Amino acid sequence: ASFFFICLYLHVGRGMYYGSYMYLQTWMVGVILLFLVMGTAFMGYVLPWGQMSFWGATVITNLLSAVPYLGMDLVQWVWGGFAVDNATLTRFFTFHFLLPFIVAAATMIHLLFLHQTGSNNPLGLNSDVDKIPFHPYFSFKDIVGFLALVMILTLLTLLDPYLLGDPDNFTPANPLVTPVHIQPEWYFLFAYAILRSIPNKLGGVIALVLSIAILMILPFTNKSNFRGTQFYPINQILFWSLLVIVILLTWIGARPVEDPYVLVGQVLTVLYFSYYILNPLMFKL
């Protein structure tokens, strides 16, 4: 799962840098895919039924209670009872099994839209005159990338398989003992830090969803004459600043809820969302 998310985040980052979001349908389906994959990963994280699994499920499903009027009904509907229990585990297992099929279907739609427009390129220009065959050029390039990732994954699996996991998850789930610091897997930490930085529960949930959903506004706010940020130095600085902000948010998400981490998290949250306001404005400078 960790490697899957590394590839996904690299893919999204490349799309943002090179302006691939101008392929509207492809980009929108891609953002929906990201939500689906995150949902699948969250369901899967609950299945080991360790301390972090149990309390992570409790905290995240409880967020639904912030929905006005329907909150508690929704929470109990998801739980299948009045607490996270066997019924919750069973339905999470079912969803974890079914969602990948929906992900596969959405991937096909993603590729279908991509094939209608053709792929983007670093210059953002029409490349019809420079077309080269997919095989051997791209197929070998992809095989090299695939082998490099498999090699790193194999090394990680053989040498330190628990490096990216949480030691608390080896303790069987116990509803009577709350862990000192509840946190999700590392690939959710930036969104978790944004959730924590807003004191109001409903506001936090909205910010959590917006942290990913805001990607959908990129095609509509783009004001550049060239696709991508290759010819816009200020936007390049903003992009790399965004990368640093996301890494710092990931770090903050793993820290306890105390000063100075709370304040730093709030500042970083404001900076994260301000990127999406400043970036289109800087294209016009």
Automatic annotation (TrEMBL):
PANTHER family per record = CYTOCHROME B
- Annotated Cytochrome b/b6 C-terminal region profile domain ranges read 124-285
Cofactor detail note: Binds 2 heme groups non-covalently.
This protein's name: Cytochrome b
List the PROSITE patterns hit by this protein, alphabetically.
Answer: CYTB_CTER, CYTB_NTER
Q: Domain Cytochrome b/b6 N-terminal region profile, which positions?
A: 1-123
Give the location in the cell: Mitochondrion inner membrane
- Any stretches that span the bilayer, and where are they? 26-47, 54-72, 92-114, 143-164, 202-221, 233-254, 261-278
GO CC, any one term: mitochondrial inner membrane
One Pfam family, short name: Cytochrom_B_N_2
Question: Where does the signal sequence lie?
Answer: none
Q: One biological-process term from Gene Ontology?
A: mitochondrial electron transport, ubiquinol to cytochrome c
Q: Which organism is it from?
A: Isocapnia vedderensis
Q: Which family does it belong to?
A: Belongs to the cytochrome b family.
Subunit composition? Answer: The main subunits of complex b-c1 are: cytochrome b, cytochrome c1 and the Rieske protein.
> What GO molecular function annotations does the UniProt record carry, in alphabetical order?
metal ion binding; oxidoreductase activity; quinol-cytochrome-c reductase activity
**InterPro entries for the chain:** Cyt_b/b6_C (IPR005798), Cyt_b/b6_C_sf (IPR036150), Cyt_b/b6_N (IPR005797), Cytb/b6-like_sf (IPR027387), Cytochrome_b_C_euk/bac (IPR048260), Cytochrome_b_N_euk/bac (IPR048259), Di-haem_cyt_TM (IPR016174)
